[in-house]
Amino acid sequence: MAEKSEKTLRHIAFIMDGNGRWATKRGLPREAGHKAGAEVFKTVSEYCVDIGIPIVTVYAFSTENWKRPKREVDAIFRLFSQYIEEAFARFLEKDLVIRFIGDRTPFPKSMTDRMEELERITAGRKNTLNIAINYGGRDEIKRAVNKLIAEGKTEITEADIEAKLDTAGEPMPDMIVRTGAEQRISNFLTWQSAYAELYFTDTLWPDFGKEDVDKAVEEFYRRNRRFGGV
């Protein structure tokens, strides 16, 4: 974990909100918004690494998103499957670890096998892209605690929990960016966000670009991070 005095932006996370509204405003099905958002996700995540941010986490699909219409959920998972296959070619020559965080148990074995293979062949690289899929912050904490219980732990420390989180071994996010005008974190990185800088923008995710990333980064470096101190 970073020292409390450190102000370097090492880990940025995105709540990619507004895909459906972006499509609706244009008279398009919500699935079209997710397709547009998927392209922005690729551009933004790679740009963050290019400008020197070594860890990027994106909220692709939450544990609550299953409540959405089946057609929309199916479209999201088609895009996700396509992304996995594209990533094998897209990232083989990039210095980037691909890591999937969240509960994989609902996914078909064919999908989880490909996710694990992608994680394996990209392991050990300098930069990291975490893709949160079927992810919920409370669910992550629950899973971490259950792992500790299964190991026979009777007294649990914060360090124990952090070691069992999906993001174990990574620094906590320095900044969480949410697009789409909403101002909440929606069960994203619940444990990890305790001291993250929060940045909200009205821009819908499919309209979010490199200049918007630059604005968020500039805002980060304007803030005074005290971590409970003075």
Architecture overview:
42% of the residues lie in helices and 16% in strands. It is built from 7 helices and 6 strands; from the N terminus they run E-H-H-E-H-E-H-E-H-H-E-E-H. It has helices at 19-25, 30-50, 70-90, 109-122, 137-150, 158-164, 210-222; strands at residues 11-15, 55-62, 96-101, 127-135, 175-178, 197-200. It has a 6-stranded parallel beta sheet with strand order 3-4-2-1-5-6, with helices on both faces. Helix 3 (70-90) packs parallel to helix 4 (109-122). The radius of gyration is 17 Å and the shape is globular.
| Poorly predicted residue ranges | 1-5
User: How would you state the average pLDDT, rounded?
Assistant: 91
Helical proportion?
40-55%
Number of helical segments with 4 or more residues: 7
Order the strands across the largest sheet as they lie in space. 3-4-2-1-5-6
Structural class: alpha/beta
Radius of gyration using CA atoms only: 17 Å
Q: Approximately how much beta-strand content do the residues carry?
A: 15-25%
Strand segment tally: 6
Give a short account of the largest sheet: 6 strands, parallel
